[in-house]
Amino acid sequence: MATATLSSTSLTYLHFNSSSFWRRRFSISCAAVLDRGIYNFAAGPATLPESVLLKAQSELYNYRGSGMSIMEISHRGKEFDAVIKKAESDLRSLLSISDDFAVLFLQGGATTQFSAVPLNLCMPEDSADYIVTGSWSVRASKEAQKFCKPNVIWSGKSEKYTRICSFDEIPQTLDAKYLHICGNETVQGVEFKDYPNPMNKSSILVADMSSNFCSKPVDISKFGVIYAGAQKNVGPSGVTIVIIRRALLGHAQPIAPVMLDYKAHADTDSLYNTPPCFTIYICSLVFEYLLHQGGLVAMEKKNEKKAGVLYDAIDASGEFYVSHVEKSVRSLMNVPFTLQRSELEKKFIEEAAKEGMVQLKGHLSVGGVRASIYNAMPLAGVEKLVAFMKDFQARHP
Known about the structure:
The protein has helices at 50-60, 78-95, 109-121, 135-144, 262-267, 277-292, 295-315, 345-354, 379-395, and strands at residues 2-3, 11-16, 21-26, 39-40, 101-106, 127-132, 149-155, 178-182, 204-208, 225-229, 240-245, 321-322, 334-339, 357-358, 369-372. The longest helix is centred in the last third of the chain and has 21 residues, at 295-315. The protein is globular, with a radius of gyration of 22 Å. It has three domains: 1-34, no CATH class; 78-290, Type I PLP-dependent aspartate aminotransferase-like (Major domain) (Aspartate Aminotransferase, domain 2), CATH 3.40.640.10; 295-395, Aspartate Aminotransferase, domain 1, CATH 3.90.1150. The chain has a seven-stranded mixed beta sheet. The chain has a three-stranded antiparallel beta sheet with strand order 1-2-3, with helices on one face. The protein is an alpha/beta fold. The N and C termini lie far apart (47 Å). Pathway: Amino-acid biosynthesis; L-serine biosynthesis; L-serine from 3-phospho-D-glycerate: step 2/3.
């Protein structure tokens, strides 16, 4: 069996048979790069920029002349030291993160942060407020019950998580240590367009931004802690990014495992133990890519255009397709919708896959269809989906 991959740089050609393994190197111009023929609408792990994948491919076998793969180099070595420092520097540039904040590259997914946040910001008897707008903020509030006294001060459950409350509706707890939100609910497709302020002046705002991280500019100064799994907009699964105000470090509960103590990671520049080196490397390439695209202001405009094309098609379908989310809080990242004739949904998803549009099935908890259109989803992918939607509707009057 032989495999060849095309890119703009010198790559490795691998040939396998039952008794031998050999390689030879060659170069192919960028014009020869082939489209993979698939638009991946998965909620995560999600599509990555093509240029990032090709760059990683070109450096995979021998990273910048080191004689080692990026997956083999020591996290204590000079090569990886340069990688993680550049990743942090570029992320600080993208989000205008001041030195008042530490940037941590951690493991365990955003779900681990459901525990780490209360363990670092509260004592067991302390209160914390949670605004529950969907599946992930539900999980965060439930996990916090183990480590503090969380109060669900607003929940969209009765309305099936289709809207976000007006901030003046929220009866905040006066002595709450923090106010927690999920910036974008991947399952239900609701997104905060603005952010609440904690009523308690000594309290802080905490946000799970896993599914809209680096999709638009954010005023970091409004927050005490932001955390995000990388596998939506900025890399493959395996690393979670935490941005925390330095003044909040060093107050973890005594029972906090060292791996959940933010100070342990801040003091060691995210190298307390072996970090997910390859994932951080990919994040670094993505941050560089985002800067070259014009930064997050430019990305937000692209994301607004893509989402607008898709929502317009849904709204213009005469309720053949239905978005249940209040228009003012529709997500730019995750677009869940249903077909008025639910018996057609399975056929819709199967036929779309045959046309090269995959991972459109809605989350198991809600069903329907979901198109995740993160940073790396090109406008052409959304336009192809919309064309398919119109054709499918025409064939099922």
